[in-house]
Amino acid sequence: MQPALQALTVETAFAPLVVRDREMALCCLAGLWLYHDFLDEAHKRAQEIETASGSFWHAIMHRREPDPNNSKYWWRRVGNHPVLKTLSERAAGLRFEFTTPFAFVDLVERVRGTGSDLETLARQVQQVEWELLFDHCYRSAI
């Protein structure tokens, strides 16, 4: 995937659609790098986006490293992002109570590598989180 991701630009990734918000389109590209586990490249890209959504991608990346304190720093920069409310609702459908991103960072740290049912659930919540944020950024970009 790395060569395909390196070849992506905002223009090629969204063609033939017209990009209305370039920063949100760049967020999508950062999200794709993160999805494919290229954390350094995702970090580099997210760090350059000075928006709440860019900080959201940045916070997720640091949670994945793991660097929980740095993740929490970026969550403070995210603020009250619209995706968080939807994430809380969708997490409830998975029988998980998503209270705050900070509490979720702590939970991920506690269950990381345990192979427990709670780790599996945390991974499912993170997948939903990625999908919701990517969808938000994509819709905002076009």
Coarse structural class: mainly alpha
Which radius of gyration do the C-alpha atoms yield?
15 Å
Low-pLDDT runs of 5+ residues are none
Number of strands: 0
Structure notes:
75% of the residues lie in helices and 0% in strands. The longest helix has 25 residues, at 117-141. Helix 3 packs antiparallel against helix 9 and helix 8 (101-111) crosses helix 9 (117-141). The chain has one domain (2-141). The protein is mostly helical and 142 residues long. The chain has nine helices and no strands.
What attributes characterize this protein structure?
mainly alpha; 9 helices; globular
Topology:
Elements lengths: L1 H6 L2 H5 L7 H14 L3 H9 L4 H13 L3 H11 L3 H12 L7 H11 L5 H25 L1
Helix pairs in contact: 3-4, 3-5, 3-9, 4-5, 5-6, 6-8, 7-9, 8-9
In brief, what are we looking at here?
The chain is mainly alpha-helical. The chain is built from nine helices and no strands.
